[in-house]
TrEMBL record:
Pfam families for this protein: Ig_CFAP47
Superkingdom of source: Eukaryota
InterPro entries (alphabetical): Ig_CFAP47
GO biological process: one example: sperm axoneme assembly
CFAP47-like immunoglobulin-like domain sequence ranges: 82-221
Assigned GO CC terms: cilium
Alphabetical list of PANTHER family matching this protein: CILIA- AND FLAGELLA-ASSOCIATED PROTEIN 47
Protein name from the UniProt record: CFA47 protein
Amino acid sequence: FHLAGIRLAPKEKLEIPVLFMPAEMKIYKAVVVILVMRENGENWPYEVTGESDTDLNRNVIVAENGETQGILWIYPINGTPEAPQQKSVVVRCQARQRLEQRVELLLIGVMPGATDLPDAGNSAMVDMEESSSTPEVTDGSSATLEFLYELQYQSDEIRYQLESLVGMELVEKEWDTESRIVTLIFNVVFAPSKPMRSEATLVIQCTAGGLWKFPLVFIATEPEVDDVINIEAVGLNKESIVGFKLTSQTR
């Protein structure tokens, strides 16, 4: 859309509405351009020279006499569609045991054929950790799709609790060109040391555009009983004592 003839007083703020309604899971780009000129049509006496700031040289409109006729502000907008949040995937394991589970996730509406990453200025770009992978999915037409994935936690406390107990690796991927559905199969390892219930979110981004979030619930149930302690009475109203050792698993 185009807005014109907006009059701004000194120090006044201007709000510019931006509506994003993506029709497909792909990257959308646009530019908001704002041009400011004096209401009376006069120029600013400031002259742009070769020694002026580079950004200033690029963002001003110079009149014939060298004075400044208008000032431009250019704001790039990068839109990344996000799929509706999916149902929670529950990973359940008994405390002090190790569970290895395959989790199958469906990415619906994937657009093929784009391999470039979004611009660094994209505010919707997920900040992936060094451990994140970029596996490739290739269909019969040699269109390559790349994905980034990361396990995000609700707080630093949950991250500290789960990070050493949970591992994820993408082991299989399938690309259905007709339905535009990509199936990603993850191998999830969960090795809890004590009973707990924590939540995390697996965030998957396709470099062709699109963001999918899958809630994960990690549940550790009560561990097996270590041992049964039998105490034999030595007589009525007399104390019986039994000793046993406990070993700490940490420092």
